[in-house]
Amino acid sequence: MEYALLMLIVIFVTVQNVMSKKYNVDIRHQNVFLFNAVTAFAALIFFLVSSGFRLDFNIEFLPYSLLFALAHSSASIGLVLAIKYGSLSITSLIISYSLLLPTLHGIIFLDERLGSTSYIGMGLLLISLFLVNIKKEDVKLSALWVVFTVITFIGNGMCSVVQKIEQTVFDGAYKSEFMMVALFASAVVSLVLGLVSAKSLKQEIKGTLSCGIAKGLANGATNLLVMIITGALASSVVFPTISAGGIVLTFIIAVTVYKERLSKLQLLGYAAGIISVILLNI
Questions:
Q1: Cα(103)–Cα(121) distance, rounded to whole angstroms?
Q2: What mean pLDDT do residues 137-166 have?
Q3: Of 8, 31, 90, 254, which residue is the least packed, with the fewest Cβ within 10 Å?
Q4: CB atoms inside a 10 Å sphere around CB 231
Q5: What pLDDT sits at residue 230?
Q6: What separation in angstroms does the CA of 231 have from each of 69, 81, 195, 204?
Q7: pTM here?
Q8: Between these two residues, 156 and 207, which has the higher pLDDT value?
Q9: H helical segments located in the chain
């Protein structure tokens, strides 16, 4: 059952990536902040509906919700600014390594242990991420790029860490409530920034809705399943497996749907990703 849920998480993560790509490719009038706001609101609605509208709010989980909202907003907004001031491929590579934060949290603070094959799988995964993401381009790095990349890296990794901590503290309770409060705060921040930065608000909202709603629903499903699965499996297994599985599924979509031509190094990276999935779950 746990591995079926892991596969669903990989699928929903891939849906989010596809919707982000579709937004960047197909939408002419873009506003990334509005896109983040719509995504967060859609995810919030997912949690409301999936809870059956039976909610039990408790002020004690509020600090965790605010921490998650801070991490979520930092990751979303920081990514936009990091790409603005630096290399897209190197930024993507570094952010992809943020899976190490929840993995290390599990090993150091939750006394989780990896087997020898899992360590090899983790090493292959890191190599795979490098080979898949790195591209030839003129690299111009600045102090601002470093700052925003670090913010994004920490924010992205801390989202999963905060979820794990909240679920551990409350023994698996308040999944929907915790996420709804966090997503509402994140959505409000993004909405304000989106309205302030808008150049053609009507067109930007119109272009944002379809991709943003689809990504948000997939994001909601991803976060719910992650909170469920981390209660059954070690974080040091869950997050590397999700990342590696995402590499494999993204490869299939890139080749079959988008007809992308991949370099030999990228193909090697995807092969390493497939092997890492196997080793991480032995």
A1: 13
A2: 87
A3: 8
A4: 14
A5: 84
A6: 21, 34, 38, 39
A7: 0.84
A8: 156
A9: 2-26, 32-50, 62-85, 88-96, 100-109, 116-133, 143-169, 175-197, 201-229, 235-256, 264-280
Is residue 89 pLDDT above 70, yes or no? Answer: no
> Rounded distance, CA 223 to CA 102, Å?
14
Which residue is associated with the tokens 């409301």? 48
Instruction: Return the closest-CA partner of residue 80 out of 110, 18, 35.
Output: 35
**What b-and-e string marks burial along 33-54, b requiring 16 or more CB atoms within 10 Å of the CB?**
bbbbbbbbbbbbbbbbeebeee
Distance CA 80, CA 195 (A): 16
Tell me, rounded to whole angstroms, the distance of Cα 281 from its chain centroid.
21
- Are the C-beta atoms of residues 82 and 140 closer than 8 Å to each other? no
Q: How far is CA 242 from CA 16, 56, 82, 185, 214, in A?
A: 13, 30, 24, 26, 20
Does pLDDT of 138 surpass 60?
A: no
The crossing angle, in degrees rounded to 10, of helices 235-256 and 2-26 is: 50
> What distance in Å separates the CA atoms of residue 123 and residue 110, rounded to the nearest whole number?
21
User: How far is residue 79's CA from residue 73's CA, in Å, rounded to a whole number?
Assistant: 10
* C-alpha to C-alpha distance for 210 and 216, rounded to whole angstroms: 10
If we measure between CA atoms, which residue out of 58, 68, 30, 61 comes closest to residue 186? 68
pLDDT of 139 over the 80 cut: no
